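[PROTEIN RECORD]
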Amino acid sequence: MKLNFYKIIKKISLGLICLSLINAVSAQTRPIEEGFDYRVMPAPQAIEAKGKIEVLEFFWYGCPHCHDFEPQLDAWVKRQGKDVVVKKVPVAFRDDLLPHSQLFYALETLGKSNLHAKVMETMHVGKKKLLTESEITEWAVSQGIEREAFLKAFKSFTVTSKARSANQIAQAYRIDGVPTVAIQGKYITSPSITSGSKARAIEVMDHLVTKVRKEKR
């Protein structure tokens, strides 16, 4: 009996797809577990939002996974209670990426944090790196920000200090990839930790916030 090579390949491909779907469903239905869905910090970090549940989102503007995760994360933030405080922490894994962190804090200083998603859209949809001071400044001006005001904020001591401090925070949390979410200074999760599932990461974040609420009682 002569076997059809292409039929064999098709069957193998279908089998792998089915296996992937089974694994995805299994990940969604099994109980949330430490070590599989989240990690516990060896030493809890101090939190600034006293009396609140503090959530830190570590990200980098140039990260495609951060861009992909942003819509789900934004929706999650909007449905949190008043006892939850969410802060974004830009991470620059190399010195030449620090301008992206400065951009984040410059926009914050100028009251333009609403342009956060626009930065990612420009970089990942518009394919612009926005890595040099001149590129970043021209982009800011194109968004209606006055040139001198932006440059003053971008190069200010406050903004550059915040950008470097953000890296120190990331190091304290042992962040080696983004996006990563830290909850109450001791729990870490991310789509990569949850086997690449953004939906699972959101589910785990809900679980951890509930867990912290119970611990605070």
Observations:
- Confidence is low (pLDDT under 50) at residues 5-27.
